[in-house]
Each structure stands twice: as structure tokens, then as C-alpha cells.
Amino acid sequence: MERARVIDYNLQTKLRPIMEKMKPRPSVYYPDFIAANQADRADNLMEGNSKWDHVEKIREDIRDFRTRNELDTVIVLWTANTERFCDVRGGLNDTGDNLLKSIERNEAEVSQSTVFAVASILEGVSYINGSPQNTFVPGVIELAKRHGVFIAGDDFKSGQTKVKSVLVDFLVGSGIKPTSIVSYNHLGNNDGYNLSAPQQFRSKEVTKSSVIDDMVESNEILYKPGEHPDHCIVIKYVPYVGDSKRAMDEYTSELMLGGRSTIVMHNTCEDSLLAAPIILDLVILAELCQRISFRVGDEPHYQHFHSVLSILSYLCKAPLVPQGTPLVNALFRQRACIENILRACIGLPPINHMLLEYKHENVRQQSDHQISNGFPVIKKANYAQEKSNAKVVNGKPVNGFDASKLHTNGFHDELYVPDL
């Protein structure tokens, strides 16, 4: 806490009595995957060099942590250093069985984050990857599906990338064609120090640059097949600025009749403090998803979400999705996914912004409506009272509470019932 110099000193003094009682457990360290400049910090390691022994030790630590703290559920989230990408090839990690055999053989191309993922899956606990490397090789995904365990990632979406996912979505959706996007960062924390090594930077570059892909592909009028904006990512290590990351972006776009538009942005933020609440949200949502089951149509049995928990895409730079699933990076579409799933859990219809009831020629006179912020809204129902008298069986409301009558006004996220 003192070394990181992220938290205000006065707050550190208040947290010290709590923090000094927390002792980190020994971890694994495979130098080839981490920048060489991190060697001095690797001072709390598991004994031995056997990767399979490391898997078993991590499993033992998960069980001990669960027992000591009397927990029902454990979720493992990787917040450690960015690794270089590992090789993906047949016989190494292309299937679950091959990956397990590779770990037993102590194969060099099995990273420490993959070892943690495998240990978590075998122990039946969800695993979230908060860094950009390719932890989830095909063998890990197969093991997660086989054991019915959730995995999610990759890489926390906190600052520059989150803004980019909003701005590019806005530009492309407005018919403005981004042709050049240049993103520069410098920071002085240990993350920046590790990313100063080329192989580790490459992992980060991949996740930061892929965030615009689906938005570009969504507009075939602006972009021809295979056409893509020039997209450059730069990250530099500047020790003096510490955790206070500087991010500068330039978006150059084409307008009609040969015009040009350039947007330049500068952002200063506390890197770790942006990531901390994302960690909490990821764990909370993952745990909630473990308690949700549902039926599709007339299927007789309930099912859970796919092991690749794509609902968490809203919080990740490079969302991991099930094979064949459309990849969505646009921020508001990702958020709408979470909101609508949670609404479905309490028997409410998904939010939409058509407001068709106000757009047809037979719309009622304005005098029949209340007015809120200039928009007509329908008389507000006593939703809390209605719901308190309601029961939901198999996801369907009974006792007179009909969620299908509920809709939103599209502006206030409040619920209204028509014709009261």
C-alpha cells in the first residue's frame, strides 16, 4: 500500500490496522511470461517447479480459503501482471485433455494464469481474467464447459478504452467515418513498468485495438469489406507520474464532400482506482449469475448460462464470448444486456426505446397524460405495492401482477402501467 502510493496517506493510516493482518499466499512465477524487470518483486513463491504441483497447491489454497472464511462460494480473479501471449497449438493446449497432459509434462508454454484457471475450474470455482493475455486457450474453455464452471474476461475496461467504445460507436452510428485513431498513454506504476517490455505490451495492444472492430464492421456503407481505420496504440513508462495515468487520443474522420474532422482528447486518471470498482462489479455479477437458472420455451428443464460468461463484456476490453456468438464492444449495448437480463429475473420485459405509443396517428390527446421534463408519461403505478402482493412462479407473474403490461418511458428508467 505504501509502495503503490495510490491511496491518500491519511486513509492509509486508517486502513493499516486492517490491511496489516492480510497476508498474501505464495504464488507461481514463470519468468518467461513476465517482463524481466519484475524479478525483484517475485519474493513470495510456491516451492518447486512442477506446474502440476502448482495446480494442486492452488486448489488446496482455494479449499482452505473457503473453509477458514466459512464461504459458500469462491471466485478467483486474476489481477496480476500482464503476461506475453502463449502459443496455441495442437497437442499442447487445443483440448482440455491435452492441456492437462501438458501441465503434467511441465510444458514451458503453459502460463501461470492458465495454471490458475485450470486449478479454479477443477475446484469448481469461477475464474475471471483481468489482464489481456490469452489465458483462455481452447483447452481451458473446453475444461470450463466440461465442469460447468464460469470463465470470463479479458482485461479490465476502465479508462481510455471505455471512452473509445462510446466515441467510435457514436461516430460510426452518425455516419462519420473514423479513418485514423491514435491512442497514447504514459504511466508510472508497476503495470506500466511491466508493459515497457515488448512482449507484454503486445498483449495489451491486442486488447486495446480490437475494441472498435464490431462497430466498424456494423456499417458496410462507410467501410468496404476488409477496410479498417489506422489504429495505433502507444504505452510508455514514466516513473514520476506514478499511478496517475495520462491518456491522449486523436480521432480523425472523413465527412461528406471530402471534409475532415479531428477530435483530440486528454484524460488524467488514477489507474488503480478506476480498476478497483470494476473488480467488485465483476465478482458480484459472476456470483449473481451462478444463482440464475432459466427455461427456454417449453423445455422441461432449467439451465444455467454458458460457461463463457459473456454478460460480463461490459467490464472487459476484449470480451470473451461463446463460439459463434456476435461480439459486441459498444458500451451501451453491453450495459443494456445486463439490465435486460436482470429485468427478466423479476418478470419484467426488456427495455426498448421505440416509444411507439407516442408515434402513431391515433395517439391520445396530450391532456390525457402527465408531462415530465417535456416528455409525456403514463400515470405512474404503485409498483412496489403491486409487486409486494405478487408471486412469480417459473418466471411468470401470478396473483394479478402482470409484468407484460409494464414498460418504460425511455428516459427515466421508471416503470409505468397503462390505462389505470
Question: TL;DR of this structure?
Answer:
By secondary structure, the chain is α/β, with parallel strands linked by helices. The chain has twelve helices and 13 strands. It has helices at residues 9-19, 51-68, 96-104, 112-122, 138-147, 160-173, 190-195, 198-209, 213-217, 271-290, 331-345, 383-388; strands spanning 75-78, 126-129, 151-152, 177-187, 230-237, 244-254, 260-270, 370-372, 375-377, 391-393, 396-398, 407-408, 415-416.
Give a written overview of the molecule.
With 420 residues, the protein is α/β, with parallel strands linked by helices. 33% of the residues lie in helices and 16% in strands. It is built from twelve helices and 13 strands. The chain has helices at residues 9-19, 51-68, 96-104, 112-122, 138-147, 160-173, 190-195, 198-209, 213-217, 271-290, 331-345, 383-388, and strands at 75-78, 126-129, 151-152, 177-187, 230-237, 244-254, 260-270, 370-372, 375-377, 391-393, 396-398, 407-408, 415-416. The protein has a four-stranded mixed sheet with strand order 5-4-6-7. The protein has a three-stranded parallel sheet with strand order 1-2-3, with helices on both faces. Strands 8-9 form a two-stranded antiparallel ribbon. A hairpin with a 2-residue loop joins strand 8 (370-372) and strand 9. Helix 2 (51-68) packs across helix 4, helix 3 (96-104) crosses helix 5 (138-147) and helix 4 runs parallel beside helix 5. The longest helix is centred in the last third of the chain and has 20 residues, at 271-290. The radius of gyration is 25 Å and the shape is globular.
